Amino acid sequence: MIILAGWLFARFLSVPLIYAYHTHVPEYLPRYKLGFLAPATWWAMRLFHCAAELTLVTSTVMRDALQQNKMTGSDEDLDVWKKGICCETFHPRFASAEARRRLLAGRSEGPLLLSVGRLGWEKNLHSLKAIVDAIPGCRLAFVGDGPARSSLEAHFAGAPVAFLGLLQGETLAAAYASADVFVMPSESETLGFVVLEAMASGTPVVAVRAGGIPDIITRPGETGILYEPGDVQAATAGVKRLLEDVAFRDRVARAAREEVSLWDWRAATQYLLREQYPAAMAANARRRAQAGG
């Protein structure tokens, strides 16, 4: 309904219409046993996005997927919106013993992994149990909530895993900065903001090579560790290396922090205003001229 309302207002006011594509719905449908709806979903998405002057996506992978499925009227109507974060909001200085104790949830000290985000079926979070089981003394903390929480709690029953629910503000920033390794097993991220936040916090990331994540970790082995979808052994090896080689972990953390500074929100906003908005206005002017002719 929001998409329809936006389309109606844009046409009524004769102003450019820009859509921002954040959730790759066709990818999620099979995970909720709704894969049969994918063709209809693509059709509906094409209907609305072809009516827009510009569709902004969060990564080159998403851009390529939408181009392949002819989502917009032309490839020129599709562009990457390089999102930004505040590198002062998420910073290594927020690390604290108190935050670490919260993540450990009363358990003794040990290697501490962190996952932040929606606890959804599409996030592939159940796969993290194999990593926890393979590393002696390993602990894992989930920050976030969602429909798969009860299933995850049952799946991890008896394991050294804590479910902390939603955290915000400095409490969330402290959680990021106080873990040893951030793990990201989701294969369906259009970007992966939590990966950016972890990198800004000085916590090295082990993530699946899928979705928009390779656009963030552009130098695997230097700014983070990527593994192929489904390769839990490689994921475990990556986590182990970061935990066991402190010098390597520190190098990755520093390089990741430097890399993520390129994702500053000010630069992202300036590009949007300087390049993408004018392109949408020019496309709208052409559309109106053609309609008038």
Automatic annotation (TrEMBL):
Q: Which residues form the Glycosyl transferase family domain?
A: 108-258
Q: Which InterPro entries match?
A: Glyco_trans_1, Glyco_trans_4-like_N, Glycosyltransferase_grp1
GO function terms (MF aspect): glycosyltransferase activity
**Which keywords are on file for this protein?**
Glycosyltransferase, Transferase
The answer on whether this UniProt entry bears the keyword Repressor reads: no
Which ranges carry the Glycosyltransferase subfamily 4-like N-terminal domain?
Answer: 4-85
Q: What is this protein called?
A: Uncharacterized protein
> What are the top taxonomic ranks of the organism?
Eukaryota, Viridiplantae, Chlorophyta, core chlorophytes, Trebouxiophyceae
